[in-house]
């Protein structure tokens, strides 16, 4: 005689709602894109600050 188990088996890959998965993926991608844009903007600002600093040093050397 075979008995059936009434427990649910947990799997490593649960079956998720495709709409939910798409929403989560879109949110994560949006967050990564936002972070990347902020990083690029910060790098450009740093580069511009260094260029301005070099110009000031050159002007000071010319005046001395």
Topology (SSEs and partners):
Blueprint: H1 18-63
Structure description:
The chain has one helix spanning 18-63. With 64 residues, the protein is mainly alpha-helical. The protein has one domain (19-64). The protein is rod-shaped and about 100 Å long. The N and C termini lie far apart (102 Å). Residues 43-64 are annotated as: Disordered.
Summarize the structure.
The chain has one helix at 18-63. The protein is mostly helical and 64 residues long.
Number of helices: 1
Class per helix and strand makeup: mainly alpha
Calculate the terminal CA-CA distance, rounded to whole Å.
102 Å
Number of strands: 0
Mean pLDDT: 87
Give helix and strand order, one letter per element, not per position.
Answer: H
* Overall geometric form: rod-shaped
Q: Describe the sheet with the most strands.
A: none
**What Rg is obtained from the alpha carbons, in whole angstroms?**
28 Å
Q: How much helicity do the residues have?
A: over 70%
| β-sheet strand percentage | under 5%
Stretches with pLDDT under 50, minimum 5 residues: none
How many structural domains are formed by the residues? Answer: 1
């Amino acid at each position: 005689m075979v008995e059936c188990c009434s427990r649910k088996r947990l799997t490593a890959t649960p079956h998720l709602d495709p709409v939910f998965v798409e929403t989560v993926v879109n949110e994560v991608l949006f967050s990564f894109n936002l972070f990347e844009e902020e990083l690029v903007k910060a790098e450009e600002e740093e580069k511009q600050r260094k260029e301005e600093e070099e110009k000031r040093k050159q002007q000071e050397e010319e005046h001395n």
